[in-house]
Amino acid sequence: MLNNPKGYGEGEDYFIPSQNADPEIRLRLMDKYGVDIQALSQTTPQLMGLNSREADELCRISNDDNYALCKAYPDRFVNICILSLLDMKTAMTELDRSINELDCRGVTIATNQQGKGIDSEEYFPFYEKMVQQDLPVFLHPLNWQSYPLVKMKEGWNMMHVFGWPFDTTQAVWRLIFGGIIDRFPALKVVTHHLGGMLPFFSRRAETNFNRFLSDKLPRHITEYWGNFYGDTALDGTAGAFMCGYEFFGPDRMLFGSDYPFGMDTGEDFIRENLNCIKNMSIPPEAREKILGENSRKLLKIAN
After folding, report:
1. Please, what's the largest Cα pairwise distance for the chain?
2. Residue 66 is assigned to a structural domain of this protein
3. Can you give the pLDDT at residue 265?
4. Are 247 and 198 contacting, i.e. CB atoms less than 8 angstroms apart?
5. Residue span of the structural domain in which 78 resides
6. pLDDT value for 6
7. Which bin fits 21, alpha (ψ -120 to 50), beta or left (φ > 0)?
8. How far apart are CA 240 and CA 155, in angstroms?
9. Neighbours of 186 (CB within 10 A)
10. What is the pLDDT of residue 290?
């Protein structure tokens, strides 16, 4: 029997409003804010505390539920499946099922696999399959407990605010320096929260590469940035949006809301992230790309 995911529920770290289960409420909210199509993705913290068998089962259930909603409303939803890589044999079986049976448009994985880096050699078959199918990998950050000062309870939710963006950043760093991008140069990776720390510290990364790490990669580090995309799930911060835009550019920035998390049963994040995009000092055609065109292309959504 599947255990309840750690930390989810009323009064827990991760509270999801009951309205999230009602597609009509979701659709009305989409209509209110002019969202034509929603990509249904899952968050990896739901896998915390589960063993490989439990994590695989939860992924299967979640992928099936997502697909059922997409099938019921084919013009409004597309399916982003989720995988646990703790057991690669099972993961590859679920990946094949997601592609062949569930109209998978992308796959979410955690930025670490119970502390193991996502550049580990055992994960090569996953990346190879994703490239073969031209599907993007979605990175969702996860808790890491080696630094107790940022734990949820003792650190006043610092893990959510600062720890998760760091874990996204380390995952990107390992994909580059661990050789994944060189081995799979066509790999497309979507980073949650607009790239974590990378846009803000991109020149710091580049100067450290130039001084200390230039012999570690066959190309300059800036040539790897093009494999990465950033969603706009920043909870609404105008300056941060422009920082992300300077890094990702108009073609690799995607509207994302982090719904149903956030205040007002998730509506706050939709409203504020949209407002920030609409108020960015960028050309109208760039704004249209961020709000939909880039996602349509990446996820192969018919116009």
Report:
1. 55
2. yes
3. 87
4. yes
5. 1-106
6. 57
7. alpha
8. 24
9. 11
10. 98
Pairing between strand 189-191 and 228-231? Answer: parallel
Instruction: List the CATH number of the domain containing 67.
Output: 3.20.20.140
Contact 227, 127 (CB under 8 A): no
- Express each pLDDT in 64-96 by its tens digit: 999 999 999 999 999 999 999 999 999 999 999
Q: Which residues of the chain have pLDDT under 70?
A: 1-15, 145-147
Instruction: Find the radius of gyration of the CA atoms of the chain.
Output: 18
- Could you give the CA distance from residue 229 to residue 287 in angstroms, rounded to a whole number? 15
Cα–Cα dist 140/46, whole Å:
11
- Give pTM, 2 decimals: 0.94
Q: What are phi and psi of 277, to 5 degrees?
A: -65, -45
What integer pLDDT is reported at residue 146 of this predicted model? 65
The partner residues of 81 in beta bridges, in order of sequence, read 107
CA distance 213 to 112: 23
Q: DSSP of 268-303, one letter per residue?
A: HHHHHHHHHHHTSSS-HHHHHIIIIIHHHHHTT---
pLDDT tens, position by position, 161-173? 899 999 999 999 9
Q: Give the integer Cα–Cα distance in Å for 220 and 182.
A: 12
In this predicted structure, what is the pLDDT of residue 12? 62
If you ran DSSP here, which 8-state letter would residue 219 be given? S
Q: Within a domain: residue 124?
A: no
How many structural domains compose the chain?
Answer: 1
In eight-state DSSP terms, residue 84 is -
Q: Is residue 86 part of a domain?
A: yes
| pLDDT of the residue at 20 | 79
Predicted local distance difference test score (pLDDT) of residue 151? 77
Q: Is 110 helix (H, G, I), strand (E, B) or coil?
A: strand
DSSP state of 105: E
Closest among 113, 114, 124, 218 to 176, alpha carbons compared: 218
DSSP bridge partners of 14: 8
Is residue 254, in this structure, part of any structural domain at all? no
8 A C-beta contact, residue 40 and residue 79: yes
Q: Specify whether the backbone of 11 is left (phi greater than 0), alpha (psi in -120 to 50) or beta.
A: left
